[in-house]
């Protein structure tokens, strides 16, 4: 028998201890420096602790209160599921399943249409209705092949790049990131608390970093890159955040032009990043470390479909199966002028899919036809693929580079 109880501030130590035992790791206690800092941004009132029949804590799950940007620049509140773990001694007995069931019910009660998470292993979460919605990768450029293609006449950047230290730039980083994440589908907010406490990965974490800050012609900050050079003479870029293409190009030029480095490794580049097109030698850079990143779980089918923006008009009947919650939805989705209506229907479906696949296509990063070719979703008419692809396409590839 598994008993699941919500946590409070008083349970934080027990929660942290249980979760780290699940990962087989030791960490500094909350409140101290190092890895313990991460827990200072945790929301203990949103945690769940699973107890076994003897009352011992054996599993954990938590959630952050975040915002997610959907296609069309629509922003919705979401829970960022985190800190999921089950003690090695209690694995494969349904503890996680019980935690997920309880957590999903709670998230629905909050009225949220979606939940998101980053998965430690990509085999875990599909069964609970999550689908991979964004991916990320590194992009490595050897310095001796890093020359940029010449700019066209008149394309010189009227802005400037200023060199700062991370500690002196935190407020600017927070502001620029916030502007950026509102524009890019798939991005999540970074609560002020994270920046304030240095809880996260660099540049949120106060590790020594240089920051190249881009300002537009009017002097307004509109992009940054956080980086350092390692002993192996690799310039590692934690993230390149740019509100405009001009800012991105200027930052790439700055980083690729750095002296005394052998390689420049850009972390967390989106699938549609322009780097290969900026280089004079198109194949100089190599993608590395491709991985799934943000997983999305639709909690409310019509709510999620009407929350995003749409760039094409059309109509589709979707048959959505939610085996984990034991639900089945057939909805007519009608899009006119960028707005969607979604109502129950008994019309014949155009496509049938699992709720996890709806999470994947909702953000626009994977076309429905790709999932159909992989046998994930079923198309009921020859033209359903083209109609679904045209409808679900996002104005930009979704991307998330926040780690939580
Ligand atoms: C958002 C995040 O926090 S991601 C972090 C996830 N946590 C970790 O990776 C920490 C280390 N791992 C663990 O703590 C545990 O193994 C967990 C949390 C992944 C799984 O917990 P369990 O209590 O064992 O899961 P549970 O018993 O409910 O398993 C449900 C199903 O998922 C399967 N499953 C669970 N974890 C895995 C896995 N890592 N690989 C393959 N299958 C898995 C089970 O086999 C089971 O399948 P079945 O229904 O066909 O029998």
From TrEMBL:
One of its GO terms (molecular function) is aminoglycoside N-acetyltransferase activity. Signal peptide: none annotated. The active site is at 125 (proton donor), 404 (proton acceptor). Coiled coil: none annotated. InterPro entries: Acetyltransf_17, Acetyltransferase_Eis, Acyl_CoA_acyltransferase, Eis_dom, GNAT_dom, NAcTrfase_Eis, SCP2_sterol-bd_dom_sf. One of its GO terms (biological process) is aminoglycoside antibiotic catabolic process. Residues 2-154 form the N-acetyltransferase domain. Acetyl-CoA binds at residues 84-86, 92-97, 120-121. Keywords: Acyltransferase, Transferase. Belongs to the acetyltransferase Eis family. HAMAP family: Eis (MF_01812). Homohexamer; trimer of dimers. This is Acetyltransferase. It comes from Kitasatospora cineracea.
């Amino acid at each position: 028998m598994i008993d699941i109880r919500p946590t409070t501030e008083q349970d934080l130590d027990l929660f942290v201890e249980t979760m780290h035992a699940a990962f087989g790791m030791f960490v500094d206690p909350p409140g101290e420096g190092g890895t313990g800092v991460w827990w200072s941004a945790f929301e203990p009132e949103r945690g769940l602790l699973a107890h076994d029949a003897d009352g011992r804590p054996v599993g954990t799950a938590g959630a952050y209160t975040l915002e997610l940007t959907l296609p069309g620049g629509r922003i919705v509140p979401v829970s960022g599921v985190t800190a999921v773990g089950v003690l090695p001694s209690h694995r494969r007995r349904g503890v996680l399943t019980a935690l997920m069931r309880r957590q999903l019910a709670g998230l629905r009660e909050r009225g949220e249409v979606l939940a998101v998470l980053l998965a430690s292993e990509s085999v875990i979460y599909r069964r609970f209705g999550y689908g991979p919605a964004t991916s990320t990768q590194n992009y490595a450029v050897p310095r001796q092949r890093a020359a940029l293609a010449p700019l066209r006449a008149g394309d010189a950047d009227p802005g400037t790049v200023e060199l700062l230290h991370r500690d002196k730039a935190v407020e600017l980083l927070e502001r620029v990131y916030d502007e950026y994440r509102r524009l890019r589908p798939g991005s999540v907010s970074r609560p002020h608390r994270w920046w304030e406490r240095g809880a996260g990965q660099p540049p949120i974490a106060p590790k020594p970093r240089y920051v190249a800050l881009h300002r537009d012609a009017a002097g307004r900050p509109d992009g940054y890159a956080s980086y350092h050079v390692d002993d192996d003479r690799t310039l590692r870029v934690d993230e390149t955040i740019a509100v405009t293409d001009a800012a991105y190009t200027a930052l790439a030029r700055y980083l690729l032009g750095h002296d005394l480095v052998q390689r420049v490794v850009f972390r967390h580049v989106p699938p549609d990043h322009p780097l290969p097109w900026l280089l004079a030698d198109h194949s100089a850079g190599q993608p590395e470390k491709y991985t799934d990143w943000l997983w999305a779980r639709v909690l409310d089918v019509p709510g999620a479909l009407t929350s995003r923006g749409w760039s094409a008009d059309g109509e589709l009947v979707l048959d959505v199966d939610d085996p984990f919650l034991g639900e089945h939805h057939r909805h007519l989705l009608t899009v006119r002028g960028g707005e969607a209506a979604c109502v129950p229907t008994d019309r014949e479906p155009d496509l049938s899919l699992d709720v996890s696949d709806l999470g994947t296509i909702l953000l626009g990063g994977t076309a429905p036809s790709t999932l159909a070719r992989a046998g994930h979703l079923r198309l009921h008419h020859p033209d359903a693929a083209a109609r679904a692809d045209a409808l679900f396409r996002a104005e930009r590839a979704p991307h998330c580079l926040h780690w939580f």
